[in-house]
Design a protein that fits this description.
Largest interface: A-B, 78 and 49 residues
Number of helices of chain B: 4
Number of strands of chain A: 2
Oligomer: heterodimer
Shape of chain A: globular
Distance between the termini of chain B: 39 Å
Order of helices and strands of chain B: EHEHHH
Shape of chain B: flat
Structural class of chain A: mainly alpha
Number of helices of chain A: 12
Radius of gyration of chain B: 27 Å
Largest sheet of chain B: none
Order of helices and strands of chain A: HHHEHEHHHHHHHH
Distance between the termini of chain A: 32 Å
Strand content of chain B: 5-15%
Chain lengths: 325, 115
């Protein structure tokens, strides 16, 4: 059992749990907005804090402390707020599996625990749209549901494929896979395939262009977020940013091997982790600013061709390697 | 530092962690959110709510649609090759399919069960 429960509580609440994930998500939101603004010849956030760095914090606080709640007649407001908060907290708790945690928890087959916990976020986005009586919200949720039919299995297969490479150290452990360095020959081949697949999933699940179909503002008035306002909108935006930040962090640690060629015991290792994190976020933001939105059936075909098929190939290759070695 | 747990304990630790966290933050939100509430009708870009009341029926059908859309080509090929009206066409597709299933199940029993 865990020897230091207080450290575990600190991890869940502060680092790398709730507080750290929320801070990272809001800083990432600022970074993404700045990059996209620069690509569109705008300035992005500038008003609050140095170079507008505190703008996402100000937005979140403003939404949390609104003087008057504006609630749609048909929305299950309290339940929606609970579901969205549950999503943010589920991601916060799943950071215990990451090697950046001072006390990293690992177990055999923990990849399935991560997949299960991430499903809370998916269900939160679906439910928050379906809990409103607005047809735009229902349309947004419907589109999201259609996309996850392909994106969720691809995510699960990619994560399982990565863990299969280090099956001999610990069976299907995402925590161990993210901690192993240097790279093995087999790992490089599987990681390249998983890397492409996971990057597309990051764009799709993060609802970044060209996959921002469920919340298309100009088309369906914000989709599942059409009827949200005040604290509920603030928490939904936070969940959105937290999911992007967490998936980017997973990508950094799993595909780009986190602090490699250093370790997290050295300060240079942390610098490398954050440098890689912001490079991934930069690429995602550049793509989001450069391309137009796909139609839902185009997005499904894209996800199938470039993400799901690659994740199946990665899974088969990892399985073959497992039995060769 | 890495701590190895069994999967059930890890599941228990993580689930407890996020449920406690959720209860605390929902409690804090309940305390800080405004008590002044203004109830509004649905935002429909100026359209009347009555026009949309019957068209809304959210459910799981988009997931079925997504699956059929993704497998459209595959389903079309299957439909065209099986539903021809001739039993021979049905057999010529189903027998190789059954054989593939047998091969997969034998291979799986060898790999997993070590037969």
């Amino acid at each position: 059992m865990v020897s230091d429960p207080l450290l575990l509580v600190f991890e869940v609440f502060v680092f790398p749990g709730f507080l750290f994930v929320c801070l990272l998500a809001l800083v990432s939101q600022w970074f993404k907005r700045k990059i996209i603004a620069r690509m569109q010849n705008r300035m992005g956030p500038t008003y609050v804090g140095p170079v507008g760095l505190a703008q996402p914090f100000a937005d979140a606080l403003k939404l949390l402390f609104v003087k008057e709640l504006v609630v749609n007649r048909g929305i299950l407001w309290a339940v929606a707020l609970f579901v969205v908060t549950l999503g943010v907290c589920a991601i916060s708790a799943s950071t215990l599996l990451l090697p950046i945690a001072p006390l990293q928890l690992v177990s055999p087959y923990d990849v399935f625990i991560l997949i299960y916990v991430l499903l809370y976020v998916t269900f939160a986005f679906i439910l928050v749209g379906l809990m409103s009586s607005n047809p735009f919200s229902a349309t947004g949720s419907s589109r999201y549901m259609a996309m996850i039919v392909v994106a969720e299995p691809a995510l699960a297969l990619s994560l399982v494929a990565s863990t299969l490479v280090y099956y001999n150290i610990m069976p299907l452990s995402i925590g161990v896979t993210m901690s192993v360095s240097p790279l093995s020959m087999y790992d490089i081949i599987v990681t390249v395939l998983v890397g492409v697949s996971l990057f597309i999933i990051l764009l799709a699940k993060g609802m970044l262009k060209p996959y921002d179909i469920p919340e298309a503002e100009t088309e369906i008035a914000g989709g599942f977020a059409a009827e949200l306002s005040g604290p509920l909108l603030g928490m939904t935006m936070l969940l959105h940013d937290v999911e992007i930040a967490f998936l980017t962090l997973i990508y950094t640690l799993l595909v780009l091997k986190g602090p490699y060629p250093f370790t997290l015991a050295e300060p240079a290792g942390w610098v490398v982790v954050f440098a890689k994190y912001f490079i991934v976020l930069f690429l995602a933001s550049v793509i989001a600013a450069s391309v137009g939105r796909l139609r839902i059936e185009q997005a499904l075909r894209h996800l199938l061709k470039y993400s799901f098929v690659l994740s199946i190939i990665a899974f088969v290759v990892a399985l073959v390697f497992k039995y060769i070695t | 530092m890495q701590v190895t747990l069994d999967p059930f304990t890890l599941m228990l630790v993580m689930s407890t962690g996020f449920l406690v966290l959720t209860c605390i933050f929902v409690g804090i939100m309940y305390l800080i959110v405004s008590r002044k509430v203004r109830v509004t009708s649905a935002y429909l870009c100026g359209e009347d709510e009555k026009d949309f009341s019957k068209s809304l029926s959210p459910g799981g059908s988009p997931m079925y649609w997504g699956a059929t859309e993704v497998l459209k080509k595959c389903l079309k090929t299957l439909r065209e090759s099986i539903h021809t009206g001739f039993i021979d066409d049905w057999f010529s597709l189903m027998i190789p399919f059954m054989m593939v299933l047998v091969v997969i199940s034998v291979a799986a029993s060898i790999i997993v069960g070590g037969v």
